[in-house]
Design brief:
The structure holds two protein chains of two kinds. Chain A is mainly α. Chain A is built from twelve helices and no strands. In chain A, helix 5 crosses helix 8, helix 5 runs parallel beside helix 12 and helix 7 packs across helix 10. Chain A is 76% helix and 0% strand. The C terminus of chain A is likely disordered. Chain B is mainly alpha-helical. In chain B, strands 2-1-3 form a three-stranded antiparallel β-sheet. In chain B, a hairpin with a 2-residue loop joins strand 1 and strand 2. In chain B, helix 6 packs parallel to helix 9 and helix 6 runs parallel beside helix 10. The model of chain B has no long low-confidence stretch (mean pLDDT 84). The chains are: A mainly alpha, B mainly alpha.
């Protein structure tokens, strides 16, 4: 197991390098210069009728800034430089407010990861029992209704539902059941509030965003669960188990379920990146100070150091998700061997 | 039992027709294509037929002809405001929604709730939402179809090469596939879309270039399975070239399941594009899309009509393509029996 883990971890490195280099090149080859953006205010205010010495001064200041930010060098050099600093735990400074990128990202990673993990947990807790039920009672009214509902949930855009929730349930002209955004109330005070009250406050704020992130992955997962159960139900070993007199609950929960879980674990690899990508939309709608919101703001401001750092964090989490699902797969499925002997 | 052998595609057609949901999906997809094609006749600020001062005009057709450079506007109609001319006209046949998607109704108000005049209300600039939705169909469908065409071309080409030749070509391409899987796609898309000047072509290119891995991996597996079968060996023994073997002998075996991914691909491309429009990234400001109407509701949360209608359009369209894909998958799978 350890050898397998090490081997998988080593495989992560070239993939991570490839992904970040790709992102780096795309970003720097694109039109639009962050230095111009940085000076845009000053330039447009005084571009006309200004004496040439001031323009020359501005030009020189731009050159200096470009050199300072390392933007005058070639893409591979800049990338190598960035990578070297990354290994030392340095991510540079934001173009926008000169804050260290690390300080901007760190508090937000937690928010997004916690939301995503919670969402994945809830998803699995609901969709596995539902998938089992749907597959065991296949063709029943309950199965048909849940299949149809799940199918519709699957096609329901989260940004639509999120917007509708904000309009109809979070204040405005309709109901004010939920706060329209943020993580906690403005008067939230860890000193005086009891633990229970703080929990309720968080839950009240996160209920709707979590609902939005959960229903979409839930739909995908329970559809897979049902198909997977049905495919296994047709297998010979199930007939064998029934024939030798194994009781129905044991057939379903032990023989069918365990085999049906395998594709579900593979899906988990895709779920985490989808949630992190989706966080851009959900966190923007519900004003949650997470990685997605920062990504959106930084992309609009062309804050390259922050964008590339978030991108790297995103791909790191994506690869981690793939790794986790590979490991879980190897753990659940005895047919997968560890180490170099694996085909 | 009929005497004639049931061919694969006859069986697929029968199976597909027996699935009500897929038929509904297909019907809606066709209807939507009709709306996109005839958008100008459903919503536009030029009458289809106009009788003015004893003369007959077909302003809508004239507009097409002028844009194609075939003719010019008659002097009396140059720069005409047809909505104002309407009072002078003897007779005018208008599209059911007499507004263009970008035109501002100067007689009305901004953010008008749905009414007899503006069926689905107006937005913050006074543009008709219904007209915007009709014309938004064009953008959504074009993006969906072009994106999937790009994805399928790249996916089939690279997947086919990897699966057919194997060896180091497969090794290299497989690493590329893994690389693509490790990319947080949505981050990459918003980054690129925000960096380049807003344009739907850029969006098509990004979505096309990032979403082909699924098809490529599938095609690779399929080519792998088929390439060592007897009919391929036979073709090779007869001296058939590699390209011909790949396209004429192996690819047809894998086409059907690719169609399934393509149906799902259209759904997901439409979803991503409207998500980008919703965030205000990538789509030019003057262009009215379903996502851009929906995003306007964020600034004026009382204007529920700006959220409800375009979102419903996205939802129903995506559902239709997903139903179609689902039905196709069941119809193409020979393991699932006819019920």
């Amino acid at each position: 197991m350890l050898a397998y883990l090490v081997q998988r971890l080593l495989l992560l490195i070239p993939t991570f390098l490839g992904v970040t280099f790709l992102a780096y090149s795309v970003m720097l080859l694109a039109p639009g210069d962050p230095v111009d953006l940085y000076f845009a205010g000053g330039l447009s205010a005084g571009a006309e009728g200004v004496d040439t010495s001031r323009m020359v001064e501005l030009q020189k200041a731009k050159e200096d800034l470009r050199r300072e930010l390392g933007l005058d060098r070639s893409v591979p050099v800049q990338y190598a430089h960035w990578l070297g600093r990354l290994l030392q735990g340095e991510l540079g400074f934001s173009f926008k407010d000169r804050q260290p990128v690390w300080d901007k990202i760190l508090p937000r990673v937690g928010v997004t990861v916690i939301l995503s993990v919670l969402s994945i947990l809830i998803t699995y807790l609901i969709s596995i029992p539902l998938g089992i039920y749907s597959a065991v009672r296949t063709g029943s009214l309950a199965d048909q209704v849940s299949t149809l509902m799940v199918f519709m949930l699957y096609s329901l855009p989260t940004f639509w539902i999120g917007t509708l929730i904000i309009i109809f349930l979070c204040g405005g002209d309709f109901f004010a059941w939920f706060p329209p955004g943020g993580l906690r109330s403005l008067d939230h005070d860890p000193e005086t509030w009891s633990l229970g009250r703080r929990f309720v406050d968080y839950a009240h704020h996160l209920a709707m965003p979590l609902f939005c992130t959960t229903y979409a992955s839930f739909a995908a997962l329970s559809r897979f669960m049902r198909t997977s159960m049905l495919e296994n139900a047709r297998q010979d070993f199930i007939r064998t188990a029934r024939a030798k007199g194994v009781s129905e609950p044991v057939v379903i929960l032990k023989h069918m379920l365990r085999n049906s879980l395998i594709p579900l674990i593979t899906i988990m690899a895709g779920l985490l990146p989808a949630l992190i990508g989706g966080s851009v939309i959900i966190e923007t709608i519900f004003s949650i100070p997470g990685l997605g919101q920062l990504a959106y703001q930084s992309v609009l401001a062309r804050d390259y150091p922050v964008v590339i750092a978030i991108f790297a964090a995103g791909s790191f989490l994506t690869l981690l998700g793939i790794l986790a699902s590979d490991l879980a797969l190897a753990w659940v499925d005895p047919r997968i061997h560890f180490g170099k002997g694996a085909a | 039992m009929s005497a004639a052998p049931v061919t694969y595609f006859a069986r697929v057609r029968a199976e597909l027709a027996s699935q009500k949901r897929a038929v509904w999906g297909l019907g809606f997809v066709v209807a939507l294509a009709g709306v996109a094609l005839f958008a100008d006749f459903i919503a536009g600020d030029k009458p289809i037929f106009l009788r003015l001062d004893g003369q007959s005009y077909f302003p809508l057709f004239l507009d097409y002809a002028v844009r194609l450079g075939l003719t010019r506007w008659p002097v009396e109609l140059v720069g005409a405001d047809f909505a104002a001319l309407n009072r002078l006209a003897d007779f005018a046949l208008w599209p059911p929604i007499p507004y263009s998607s970008t035109g501002v109704d100067l007689t009305g108000q901004v953010l008008e709730a749905p009414s007899a005049r503006h069926w689905l209300g107006t937005d913050a600039l006074g543009r008709d939402v219904a007209a915007g939705m009709v014309h938004g169909t064009r953008i959504s469908l074009t993006i969906g179809l072009v994106v999937v065409a790009i994805q399928a071309s790249i996916g089939i080409a690279l997947g086919g090469l990897a699966g057919y030749y194997g060896g180091w070509i497969d090794m290299t391409l497989s690493r590329l596939f893994e690389l693509m899987l490790g990319i947080p796609t949505f981050f990459l898309i918003i980054t690129v879309a925000a960096i380049f000047p807003p344009s739907i072509y850029v969006i098509m290119a990004i979505l096309g270039l990032t979403g082909w891995v699924g098809i490529a991996r599938f095609i690779r597996g399929e080519f792998f399975k088929v390439r060592s079968q007897d009919f391929v060996t036979a073709a090779r023994a007869l001296g058939v070239g590699d390209a011909r073997i790949m396209f004429r002998h192996i690819l047809p075996n894998a086409v059907a399941p690719v169609l399934v991914s393509m149906a799902f691909g259209v759904a997901s491309a439409i979803l991503t594009e409207s998500g980008l429009s919703f965030l205000g990234i990538g789509v030019p400001q003057h262009l009215v899309t379903w996502g851009s109407i929906l995003s306007e509701s964020r600034a004026s949360t009382f204007a529920w009509w700006l959220a409800v209608f375009p979102g419903a359009a996205i939802f129903v369209t995506v559902t239709a393509y997903n139903l179609l894909g689902d039905g196709l998958r069941d119809a193409l799978d020979p393991k699932l029996e006819l019920h």
